[in-house]
Write a structure and sequence with these properties.
This protein is of the alpha+beta class. Helices cover 32% and strands 27% of the residues. It has an eight-stranded mixed β-sheet with strand order 1-2-3-4-5-6-10-7, sandwiched between helices. Strands 8-9 form a two-stranded antiparallel ribbon. It is globular and about 50 Å long. GO terms for molecular function: N-acetyltransferase activity.
Length: 240
């Protein structure tokens, strides 16, 4: 594990009350340790691609090569030991199953901040990652926040049954604990959808840079002519 934080620790337990449409449930947010890496990678493979604005806009959900390479990609940041997962605690049918995962890593000033890449990525993966790199390059987190490192978000996904229940907000707010555990005061990530951008703003993230997908080109070619949401944002928050 990259930061020697220690054995798996529970960050928070949350209870969601019953509503007119949903039953009550409880879940815990915890660090992803080595024993959970494979499960977390498979979870992200199943749910993140299908719900990501960039991937959907590129029509890459059925790209088997991308899915295989994504799986390899998730394992790299997950091995740093600071990612988070939410586990259902009172599901009689499938106790303690993962219902949300947030893959996190650390970017350091002495290393050029780039989007982590899988080995031999497909053309689609390369273009999606280049899109994020071009956006990140518009604003330097290190100089803007006078920091030597920041916690970065590689992606977050929630199982469909548990979406719109506030889990994403709890997971995003839990990044403050990761920043304190690693003694890194700043967190930053690319937020690609309308809902995630609104959530990030609600949780105290500020927009550092934007990129309009409808006009964005690589080698003169429009990559996302009809995106689900036209603007992706590079956003960050300082916790201490």
């Amino acid at each position: 594990m990259g930061f020697g934080i220690g054995k798996t620790s529970i960050i928070k337990r949350v209870k969601i009350g019953k509503s007119s449409e949903h039953s009550a449930f409880r879940y815990r947010i915890q660090l992803v340790d080595e024993s959970l890496i494979a499960e977390a990678a498979e979870f992200m493979d199943e749910y993140f691609i299908a719900n990501s604005n960039l991937e959907n806009s590129y029509d890459s959900v059925d790209d088997e090569e991308m899915i295989d390479k994504n799986y390899s990609f998730w394992r790299v940041p997950l091995s740093e030991g600071i990612s988070l997962a939410a586990f259902l605690e009172d599901d009689e049918d499938d106790e303690s199953r993962m219902i949300c995962c947030s893959v996190l890593g650390v970017e350091k000033k002495e290393e050029k901040p780039v989007v982590s890449k899988p080995e031999k990525p497909s053309k689609r993966v390369e273009q999606i990652l280049q899109t994020q790199e071009d956006l990140i390059g518009k604003a330097d987190v290190f100089s803007l926040f006078n920091c030597d490192a920041y916690v970065t978000g590689h992606g977050m996904a929630t199982a469909p049954k548990f979406q719109r229940r506030g889990i994403g907000e709890e997971m995003l707010r839990a990044r403050s604990q990761i920043c304190r555990l690693t003694n890194i005061p700043v967190s930053a990530a690319v937020f690609t959808g309308e809902a995630s951008q609104k959530l990030a703003k609600k949780c105290g993230y500020e927009t550092l840079a934007e990129l309009d997908l409808t006009t964005y080109r690589i080698d003169g070619k429009l990559i996302y002519p009809n995106p689900d949401w036209p603007v992706i944002k590079w956003m960050a928050a300082r916790y201490f």
